[in-house]
Amino acid sequence: MSTPPEKPHVLIVGAGIGGLLLGNLLEKSNVPYTIFERAAAVKPLGSCISVGPNLLAVFEQLGIYEHFLAISIPMNEISYFKPNMTAYKAADYRPVEGIAGYAYRVVARPIYYDLLLKQIPPHKIHFGKRVLGISEKHEKVTVETSDNATWEGDILVGADGAYSTVRQRLYERLVAEGKLPKSDQEELPFSAICLVGQTTVLDPNEYPCLTLPSCHFNVVLGYEGPYTAATMTTSEQTICWMTLRHLPKTTKSAMDKRAEENLEWGPQGAQAMYDETRDLPVQLNDGKKRLIGELYDRTPKELISKIALDEKVFDTWYSGRTVLIGDACHKVHPSRGQGGVNAMHDAIVLANLLYALPSSTSADIVKIFEEYKKERHPIAMESYNDAHLASKMDGRGFFGALVVSIATSVPKWLWIRVLTSALKARPQVGFLPEIKDKGTVAPTDSPSFLKAKALFEKTQQAAFVSDKSAHAVSTPADLMK
């Protein structure tokens, strides 16, 4: 009987949501991995994240579903308001559970991050390890970190965000070789920046919206001004918030003269925007005139982040033994809340293919990278286009108002069709027991899932036959031999 192929050692740069989920999946598939994160410690930055049917079956497979339910609350609708608090018809997400078997749920990003981090053995993740260089030699990839250490593996995954060091180093090599498309050499464009944060625990008597069993997700659109404000309640009795500033035109990150606009998830440079947006109205459904400044005041300043809302899908996702996932290869506007979901879907597809990898040769690695991009790139482009269109709902002026009016007044049958289309991509991992589908609409088949599932079932069958043979009862004739 042939021996199973040796599993590749995977080096993951970036301990964001995509990198951590990939680590969770590799842990379950017994693929060795090491995660490097440039930050010295985890900070509870960010606002909240919406997780729904597109991911929750995988959470069941990983054994973290019940824990996730405990730290999240359902999201039944998103309500839009004019600055004078005139309401549009809310976007109704209650049909989602029937269509796909799970409801959308909102969770504060920091505690969701902590849930994923807790599944990673401490010795497999290294903080304070900023990557400076990468190289490939003798069928291996090497990472050099800022503490003068070097780490060797078979595969390098760049999960380090929109300003990915891995992508930059990879692209530098491809430029030198004349292999990088011109479009990938252009800077990340963006047309908005935002502040995000989460308050400390609030008194429900002062903020009655916190007593509701579902997320209060409200968006106040500033048509005559450059700002939009959104608020979301959480299971922790906190309010997550986001303030967007719409720029008059799309610009390039490296060319923008506002010094800190191209930083990711950091408090630097937030003070000016913090001061100029304090008087923006927000809707907390208690009949009171509320300003976002009071939420700012209840949020630790060091946990308020200022980020650029970049939008770009790169063409080059891999080369040699290096591959990119998440924002490192596709950065979409957050108006549809798909950035984190896309990164996690990348991790699922890549984990399935790594499980099914026949060998650690360069040829086999490049082949699975090709399959990964073939499966994920069209979906990333669709998500990019959807998010770009949805961002018009947050935009200023008459066009933004028109988009909101149309989007919130579509007939129910058409809205159900939109939801159904968005919920067909519900991947699972093929190397864990499959979760029976609960929805009325079947998910689309994922090629990577089918590939991993075929190997998993073959392995399980072989193990069953071997175990049965080992425990077979000997006959009297056998015993006399």
TrEMBL record:
GO terms for molecular function: FAD binding; monooxygenase activity. Residues 9-175, 290-382 form the FAD-binding domain. Signal peptide: none annotated. It comes from the Eukaryota. Keywords: FAD, Flavoprotein, Oxidoreductase. Transmembrane segments: none annotated. SUPFAM superfamilies: FAD/NAD(P)-binding domain (SSF51905). Pfam families: FAD_binding_3. Belongs to the paxM FAD-dependent monooxygenase family. This is FAD-binding domain-containing protein.
